[in-house]
Specification:
Two copies of one chain form a homodimer.
Chain A lengths: L3 H15 L7 H7 L4 H13 L3 E3 L5 E3 L1 H24 L8 H7 L5 H10 L25 E2 L8 E7 L4 H10 L6 E7 L6 E5 L3 E5 L1 H4 L2 E3 L1
Antiparallel strand pairs in A: 1-2, 3-8, 4-5, 4-8, 5-6, 6-7
Helix pairs in contact in A: 1-4, 2-3, 4-5
Chain A binds a DNA duplex through helix 3.
DNA sequence: ATAAAAATTTAGGCCAGCCTAAATTTTTAG
DNA sequence: CTAAAAATTTAGGCTGGCCTAAATTTTTAT
């Protein structure tokens, strides 16, 4: 059984690893967990002792199979609780992260099974992230960034890559919602900002910075 | 902001205090929290420093107004989550205590407000315990024990005073459910066990030990 | 190729929450 | 009323998770 803190490290290692290739660095972990590098080293030694990560001094870190299984379990719980908070309690998608960070640590297999059923076995969380399967598989979605689409294309908004309150509220403000079909009417050659057509009558300005954080298919 | 552990102490002090009068003893707390008396003393000093309890060495402990407010807030969360687990997720009333012990510590005022609304502002948890109001009042129910009722009386089963899995499963087994109206057909003079009539055709044997833990009105 | 910079680890320490053993206070029994 | 028993507190110590400062290793830039 892992502590709250150990679970957070595993989840963070998974998330960092999936945004890059090769090993995750101590410094990156320190930044994500808002601790100091020395503290991270302490924890890595502990996780390595428990066989949850592969760790060689100065060489960065990688999850073992068991570590990845646990990380996916925690991410699964996090995303299911986010669905609950949005779909059942009516929170905005910009309000649920902190609460889900706490709820994900509730220790009961049965609770997760029942929650999943109660929610109708959702495949995605409110941010469009896929929910890992009960057996610990992370569905591969193969989306690309809106910033990589070409003028004239029509694409569907599928997920966000940035979960900050500010970013999500900005999308609320622009009335860009997941599931919308948008047509790219213009890409600015200078700043790569995008004008997209939503539905029949609305045109929305999307900066390159924002477009890079929107996943479409 | 209190720690997980401090919250548990406050809740435990409240619960012990409501089952007696006067101060709560160090030993009683040690037993309830499954720790040693010396550890309890440490924590009492800390809670006293924070003005959450009245504490004089060797004299036992009592919640301050602020301490009671916090305790009731935690108990409110606990009971709301129990309602959620039973009503929405379909758990048995004998399965939810451990999970609620964890869920009660999730820190979000807004979450509690929305959960309460989602559940339809329940007044009682699955064990018949009243849910403290948002402002921190514990409703007084004025029930009495089934063991104090007289032969011939018809009473309604309202709550249980014992929350152990074993006790609750025993009631399941006897098909004694809260809300049932039972008529006391016989009280055994020797062991004080009770025969009760449930509905029209069922008679259930209730030992004195069990009857002492059933609240009726 | 090597010196400076950056990343990482080690050493030593702090705090929360627990422990045991010993000391102290309160309660109880005779 | 006092001695034994029970309850409680104090003293000192442990572990988890964090810290700073110093040492070490790796990377980068000349």
């Amino acid at each position: 059984m892992q502590s709250f803190t150990e679970e957070n490290y595993l989840k963070t290692i998974y998330n960092l690893a999936s945004k890059q290739q090769g090993e995750v660095s101590t410094n990156a972990l320190a930044e994500m967990t808002a601790t100091k590098a020395a503290s991270v080293t302490d924890m890595l030694r502990k996780l390595a002792d428990k066989q949850l990560i592969h760790y060689k001094k100065y060489q960065g870190v990688r999850l073992t199979e068991e570590g990845e299984r646990l990380a996916l379990q925690i991410i699964r719980r996090h995303r299911l609780w986010e669905v609950f908070l949005v779909q059942k309690l009516g929170f905005g998608w910009d309000e649920v992260h902190e609460m889900a960070e706490e709820l994900e640590h509730i220790r009961s297999e049965e609770l997760v099974v029942r929650l999943d059923t109660f929610l109708g076995n959702p495949q995605f969380d409110p941010h469009g992230d896929p929910i890992p399967t009960p057996t610990g598989q992370m569905p591969e979605m193969g989306y690309r960034k809106l910033s990589d689409a070409e003028a004239g294309e029509a694409v569907c908004l599928r997920a966000v890559m940035e979960h900050s309150t500010e970013f999500l509220q900005h999308l609320n403000h622009s009335s860009l919602t997941l599931g919308s079909i948008v047509t790219i009417s213009e890409i600015n050659a200078f700043d790569k900002s995008v004008l997209v057509q939503v539905g029949n009558d609305r045109t929305v300005f999307v900066s390159h910075e924002v477009a890079k954080n929107l996943l479409v298919s």
